[in-house]
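It would be a great kindness if you could assist me with a short task in structural biology. A protein sequence and the structure tokens that stand for its backbone fold form the material at issue. I should value your view on which stretches of the chain appear to form regular backbone elements. The record follows directly beneath this note.
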Amino acid sequence: MNKLLQFQKRVGAIAKDSTNPFFKSKYFDINKLIEEVKPVLNELGLILLQPLTSSSNSDRLAIKTIIVDAENGKTLIEGCAILPENPDPQKIGSIITYYRRYAIQSLLFLQAEDDDGNSVAQVPKSIAKQTPSKPTDKKTIIASLLKKKTPGIKTAEDYKETCMTLTGYELLPANYDNIINYLK
């Protein structure tokens, strides 16, 4: 379970970068989600699996999401979602992708950034006054906060190391909100 804790410390809110034109809403697609979580899982020796299976109490298709510790082969956590019946292969493909995305988000307890407006609302007023007028320039906010805590920072590598040491989070866009909240 310590590896899952390390994962949660390193991965912050996932930015919603795709748009659903039907509902006029933003979401992160499965590829964005995997791009954000897979490198951290791999670094920690965790394997994410999502095999299709059949439900134990019916003949319906199900998606099983499993996190396995690569060192000892033990399953750390798993969940299973029974898919709705749908004979159309195109639609069932979309349904599988949808269930995979939300299963990963739920199983790993991931946050999704709503939008820039909500992210900015979380930045304390004292920090917002010191930052550029662009609300999405979170990296500048973090650099300013890190410099206050450790004035000798000069290189990008110094920022990365100091950030990880002080907050436990890697300096990645998905972690920016958590880093800002931690440093404030």
